[in-house]
Predict the structure of CxC5 like cysteine cluster associated with KDZ domain-containing protein.
Amino acid sequence: MSELLQLLELLRCNADALNTLTLGKVFRFVTYAARLKDDILLPQPATLSHSIAPELLPRTVIHFLSTACDISVQTTERCWSILKDLIWSSNDFAPEGSNFEACERVFLAHGHTFGLLPRSIYPSQSHCLNPNCQRNQKGLALKKAEQRQAVLYTLDNGPLPVLPLLMFKYNTERRMNYHYNFYVQGGRRVYYDDTKIPDIIQVGEHQFIERKVIELWITLMVVSWTSATNCARFYNSALSGNRKPPSGWTFGFTLDSDHVWNGFMILSLLEDLVPRKQVLSVLHTGLDQDQYKEAMQVRNRRMRLYSQPEKNQAQLIDCREM
């Protein structure tokens, strides 16, 4: 409610500058701009603090907001100048339910051309983690990026196209590539040393799944002995909403059992390691079951030695090997 009051106060104080706008257009502008914070930050100077709203919007964002809100480019720039601090400081403008679906339709209709969609997946790290990196020492954010198409499987809204999927890269003596959940260096995938388990987990090269979906699968496995194949079928038939990828999208929206198993393994390992402030490190290449085998073996040995009385049964197994 406080954000709404602040918004109304800004509109009252700038009535002359925004007198051509309807309240609906203002709310659309605030909602859409709030979804684009990462896209707004990417082309900004590397010295800019992420906690401060940029003075200027990228041209692609300006033209998208102008088209999506049915306002002129000049009005778009004026709206940003007046409302940017409120948009930047608040997390309460995210659309939900039917509002999200309406927002998604607008982004698919107008944002795809500019490389913008309502859900973006950016690495959680904005600066290089190498302490010897010169950019890191200067406090400069990572700016070299690669764009990829991907699919995000959600619980409430089904599968969603995500664009761009960015991997930040910086060439040092040993190059580090930054993905959403992890960075890659020396052939190993090292998950970020976060204090909490991420809400979205990458399970394939172009597939991401909400943690809530993976937790649902684990519940189905434990309570009703549902197989990974049937977990995938359950999502595809009951939760996907029969959504289809946009025209020209490279990847389909159908889940398979490998995505389920990868999500199960990664989440289980993170739930074991993160509370103990340990980092998950696995091979970056090879078959999925081989990538995580070493980490599963270490976890299982610890469970046998130090865990519950039922320790002989508490083992994490990739059933694809059976």
Observations:
- The first helix runs from residue 2 to 13.
- The two ends are 54 Å apart (CA to CA).
- The beta strands are 147-153, 159-166, 168-170, 176-178, 182-185, 188-191, 200-204, 207-210, 281-283.
- The longest strand covers residues 159-166.
